[in-house]
Amino acid sequence: MQHHPLPSRPAHLASIRSLCLVAACAIAGLGVVAHGSGLSGHNSDAPVNYAADHIELLDKENRVLLSGNVDITQDDLRMRAARGTVAYNNNGGVKIQRLDASGDVTVTRGEQTARGDVATYDFNRRIITMVGNVVLHRGGDSLNGARMVIDLNTGLSTVDGRGLGGGRHGTGPAGRVSGSFAAPHAKR
After folding, report:
1. Which of 40, 74, 143, 171 has a beta carbon 3.0–4.6 Å from 179's, enabling a disulfide?
2. What is the pLDDT of residues 13-27, one digit of tens each?
3. Domain boundaries, the chain
4. HEC string of the chain?
């Protein structure tokens, strides 16, 4: 798996920009948006490879059920989970439409890691949605919330406090997003 470093910026400018963004979102009552999430430019047309302890093909339903140590890769994007369901169409060739994963889901690309209870990857819209105890790590920075939407078209990740059914399903008080940004090391 290749690792793509995030665009380099002076650490103090990135931290100040991120802190201002968090403050503005908190004042507006919105979720936190992580710019330049490291997922833009992902090749969602690349082949999808999957492995699991048990795979069941439901050909009449156009589904593949995966269970036990599910490991799915597409180009340099990797998703791991306890269980997964791949939905596809078979109109002149198999084309994946959607991937649903559950059970300690981890999505990684480069230095960015996102974790949650469940995830859905909509291949047509190129969007990954994670729900439940969501944590996004990038370098020394982290964001925590109930729900995260990763737009692979733009590389924009949005974290908010709304879980399944709009209720609390994450860390911290309902509707809240928390985070931690690494402070730049002062030169002496």
Report:
1. 143
2. 333 333 333 333 333
3. 33-180
4. CCCCCCCCCCHHHHHHHHHHHHHHHHHHCCCEEECCCCCCCCCCCCCEEEECCEEEEEHHHCEEEEEEEEEEEECCEEEEEEEEEEEEEECCCEEEEEEEEEEEEEEEECCEEEEEEEEEEECCCCEEEEEEEEEEEECCEEEEEEEEEEECCCCEEEEECCCHHHCCCCCCCCCCCEEECCCCCCCC
